[in-house]
C-alpha cells in the first residue's frame, strides 16, 4: 500500500514537471535540445526507479521529488528571466553569502575550534570533506568571478582577500578532493583563454599531472591507503554491488547493498565515487550513458562560457564539481546544498550555451564574443 502511494505521488510530480513545457517551447529554438535531453533523462530515471528499485522508501522518494521540483524551478526561472540572468543572480548570491561564511569559518579556525581528532579543519560542518567541498565549490568560483568583475584595484581587494582565505581554509581541511577540484576548474578555464601563452599552457598541464602525486604525499590520511585514502573500502563495496546486479543496477539511491562500512566511518549513502555510484544504481549501460552525457555536456558548456569574462565561474564550478564528485557522492542527493547549486547551474548554463552557439543571448544583449 505504501509503495503504491509513493508511486502515485511520483507520477503526479512527473506530470507537474511537464506543465512548464508548453510555455518554454515557445522560446527560441535553442531551448529545444537541452530541454528534451533533460526531460528524457528524468523520464528514464523515473521509469528505472519504478521498475528496478529494490527498496522504495520515503527517504529515496523525497530525494527524487526534490529533484523533480528543482528541475521545474530551474526551467521556469530560465523561461521567465533568461538563463544569463539566473546565472548572474546565482553567482552574486553565492558571493554575498561567502563573506559571512568564510569569516565565521576563519574565527572558528583562529580560536582553535572546528578540528577533528586527526587535526583536519571541519569548520561549521560535521567533517573536513564537507567543509572543503563548501569552500571549493560553493564559494571559490563565485568569489573568483567577483574578483574578475571588479572594475578597480581597490574594489578587487575584498574578493581577492576572500579568495586567498578560501584556499587557505581548504588547505586546513586537508581535503585532497577539494584542492584537486579547484586546480582542475582553474586549469580548464585557463587553458581555454585565447590570450594565454603556450608556455603557460604547458605549465598548467604539468601542474595538473604532478598535483595529484604531491597532494597524495602531502596529506597522508591513512598510512595503509595513501593513494585513495579510506575511500578504497567504499570502492570495494561498489564493485561488489555492480557485480551482483551489473545490467539493471539497484535503483536510484538504493540502500540495499552495504553502503555502511563496519567501522562506521562513512554515512549510509556515501559511496566514494559518483561514476561507480551511477554504475551501481543504474546498471552498466545506463550508468555509462549518464557518465558520458554529463562529461560531454560539462566540456561543451565550459568551452563556450569560459570565453566570456562574465561567466568564467560557471565552467570553473562545473569542472571542479565533476572532479570533486569522483571522491564524493552528493550529485544525486537532491537534499544536498551542493547538488542543488550544481543542477541549477548546469541547467541554466546548458540553455545559455545553446543561445551562445547561435550567436546571441536573448534579453541580455550579450554575444558569444563579449
Outline the biggest β-sheet.
2 strands, antiparallel
C-alpha end-to-end distance: 57 Å
Question: What is the CA-atom radius of gyration, in angstroms?
Answer: 21 Å
Strand content: under 5%
Domain unit count: 1
The succession of helices and strands, N to C, reads HHHHHHHHHHHHHEE
- Give me the count of strands: 2
Morphology: globular
Number of helices: 13
Low-confidence residue ranges: 221-227, 359-370
Helix content: 55-70%
Strand arrangement within the widest β-sheet reads 1-2
| Class from secondary-structure proportions | mainly alpha
**Overall pLDDT score:** 77
List the defining traits of the structure above:
single chain, mainly alpha, 13 helices, disordered C terminus
Q: How would you characterize the overall build of this protein?
A:
This protein is mostly helical. It has one domain (2-367). The protein has 13 helices and 2 strands; from the N terminus they run αααααααααααααββ. The chain has a two-stranded antiparallel ribbon with strand order 1-2. A hairpin with a 4-residue loop joins β1 and β2 (366-367). α1 (2-18) runs antiparallel to α3 (32-52), α5 runs antiparallel to α13 (337-357) and α6 (128-149) packs parallel to α8. The chain is globular, with a radius of gyration of 21 Å.
Structure in a nutshell:
The protein is mainly alpha-helical. 67% of the residues lie in helices and 1% in strands.
Set out the fold topology.
Elements: H1 2-18, H2 21-24, H3 32-52, H4 58-81, H5 83-110, H6 128-149, H7 157-173, H8 176-191, H9 198-218, H10 231-244, H11 274-305, H12 313-324, H13 337-357, E1 360-361, E2 366-367
Antiparallel strand pairs: 1-2
Helix pairs in contact: 1-3, 1-4, 3-13, 4-5, 4-13, 5-6, 5-7, 5-13, 6-7, 6-8, 6-12, 8-9, 8-12, 10-11, 11-12, 11-13, 12-13
Amino acid at each position: 500500500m505504501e509503495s503504491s502511494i509513493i508511486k502515485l505521488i511520483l507520477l503526479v510530480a512527473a506530470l507537474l514537471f511537464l506543465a512548464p513545457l508548453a510555455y518554454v517551447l515557445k522560446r527560441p529554438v535553442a531551448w529545444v535540445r537541452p530541454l528534451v535531453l533533460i526531460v528524457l533523462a528524468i523520464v528514464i530515471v523515473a521509469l528505472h526507479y519504478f521498475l528496478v528499485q529494490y527498496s522504495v522508501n520515503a527517504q529515496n522518494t523525497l530525494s527524487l521529488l526534490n529533484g523533480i521540483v528543482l528541475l521545474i524551478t530551474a526551467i521556469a526561472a530560465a523561461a521567465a528571466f533568461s538563463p544569463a540572468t539566473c546565472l548572474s543572480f546565482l553567482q552574486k548570491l553565492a558571493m554575498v553569502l561567502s563573506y559571512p561564511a568564510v569569516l565565521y569559518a576563519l574565527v572558528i579556525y583562529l580560536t582553535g575550534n572546528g578540528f577533528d581528532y586527526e587535526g583536519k579543519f571541519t569548520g561549521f560542518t560535521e567533517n573536513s570533506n564537507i567543509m572543503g567541498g563548501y569552500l571549493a565549490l560553493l564559494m571559490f568560483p563565485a568569489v573568483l568571478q567577483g574578483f574578475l568583475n571588479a572594475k578597480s584595484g581597490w574594489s578587487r581587494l575584498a574578493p581577492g582577500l576572500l579568495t586567498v582565505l578560501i584556499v587557505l581554509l581548504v588547505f586546513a581541511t586537508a581535503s585532497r578532493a577539494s584542492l584537486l577540484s579547484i586546480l582542475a576548474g582553474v586549469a580548464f578555464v585557463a587553458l581555454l583563454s585565447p590570450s594565454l601563452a603556450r608556455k603557460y599552457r604547458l605549465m598548467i598541464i604539468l601542474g595538473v599531472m604532478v598535483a595529484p602525486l604531491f597532494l597524495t604525499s602531502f596529506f597522508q590520511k591513512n598510512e595503509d591507503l595513501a593513494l585513495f585514502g579510506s575511500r578504497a573500502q567504499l570502492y570495494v563495496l561498489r564493485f561488489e554491488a555492480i557485480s551482483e546486479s551489473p545490467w539493471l543496477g539497484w535503483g536510484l539511491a538504493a540502500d540495499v547493498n552495504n553502503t555502511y562500512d563496519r567501522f562506521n566511518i562513512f554515512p549510509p549513502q556515501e559511496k566514494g565515487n559518483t561514476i561507480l555510484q551511477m554504475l551501481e544504481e543504474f546498471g552498466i549501460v545506463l550508468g555509462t550513458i549518464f557518465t558520458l552525457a554529463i562529461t560531454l555536456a560539462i566540456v561543451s558548456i565550459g568551452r563556450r562560457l569560459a570565453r566570456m569574462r562574465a561567466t568564467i565561474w560557471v565552467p570553473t564550478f562545473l569542472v571542479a564539481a565533476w572532479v570533486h564528485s569522483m571522491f564524493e557522492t552528493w550529485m544525486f542527493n537532491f537534499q544536498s546544498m551542493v547538488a542543488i547549486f550544481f543542477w541549477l547551474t548546469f541547467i541554466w548554463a546548458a540553455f545559455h550555451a545553446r543561445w551562445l552557439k547561435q550567436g546571441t543571448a536573448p534579453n541580455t544583449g550579450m554575444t558569444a564574443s563579449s
